[in-house]
Amino acid sequence: MYKFLTVCLSLISPLFLMAADAPGAQLLTLGQAFLQLNAQIREQTIEPDSAQLRFRLIFSELREVTDGYRQQTCSDSIRFVFPIKSYDAEQIGGNGSGYRPFGFNLFDHAVQGSHPAHDIFVYDRNQDNLDDQTEQPIDVLAMRPGIVVATESNWSPESTYRGGNFVWIYDPCLDGLFYYAHHSRVTVQVGDQVTAGQKIAEVGRTGLNAAKRRSGTHLHLMYLQLTPEALPMPLNTYDWLASAQVIK
């Protein structure tokens, strides 16, 4: 099975023509493949069925690569960190009512209307990406340990992309993906292994809608649980956020 997936993945990107015996190199290679796939979905240069197949191959392989990590570090004790430093669940938009998973399709960018995520708002009345009280950038923190599998850090106002600058992190213990979006600045790279509470970005206003004056400055947070077939299913993180540790 492992060899079959490796051969199939080699068709996705030239990166797979390179040897990747070390776990770190394999993680980087798989992350680059997902980053490429993410761009193809966003730009609608791949059919949804093909995108779904490639996603399954990438994350089936990633599960195998991270199996040792999972066996050594995962436990029944699950700890969450609130994803914005010095903020808490009171800043979740609509007290969680903004979570709308119906109609979500990760593989078809043309499908719109769902919002399987929470927007967490910060104090930024003048919309300069700085906290109104501290006048400092606001840190985005990883909720859980994981591996960075995709980032965007070059969004510009001319772009029509909705997510703006973003970070995708795969959590081997939960076997799912965290998506953090709209950053002013990204501080991690594909292949990085992060810990819970580690800074990964700074809250911003990037993205087609997030950049508009009518939008309050916020972090967009989504979590996708992988099914046994390695397909992404949205899961409501409100309870995790409500019970998460706040880092001042």
Your description of this structure?
This is M23 family peptidase. 24% of the residues lie in helices and 20% in strands. It contains 5 helices and 10 strands; from the N terminus they run H-H-H-H-E-E-E-E-E-E-E-E-E-E-H. It has helices spanning 2-9, 23-43, 48-65, 67-73, 238-243; strands at residues 118-121, 139-141, 146-152, 165-171, 176-183, 185-186, 193-194, 199-202, 218-226, 232-234. The strands form 2 sheets. Strands 1, 3, 4, 5, 7, 9 and 10 form a 7-stranded antiparallel sheet that branches. The chain has a 3-stranded antiparallel sheet with strand order 2-8-6, with no helix packed on it. It is globular and about 45 Å long. The model is unreliable at 1-21 (pLDDT under 50).
Task: Outline the secondary-structure elements.
Blueprint: H1 2-9, H2 23-43, H3 48-65, H4 67-73, E1 118-121, E2 139-141, E3 146-152, E4 165-171, E5 176-183, E6 185-186, E7 193-194, E8 199-202, E9 218-226, E10 232-234, H5 238-243
Helix pairs in contact: 1-3, 2-3
Query: Which percent bin holds the helix content?
Result: 10-25%
Shape by Cα distribution: globular
Question: In the residues, how many domains can be counted?
Answer: 2
> What is the C-level CATH assignment of the largest domain?
Mainly Beta
Q: By helix and strand content, what is the structural category? A: alpha+beta
Organism: Runella rosea
Domain M23ase beta-sheet core: 139-221
Signal peptide: 1-19
Pfam family, one: Peptidase_M23
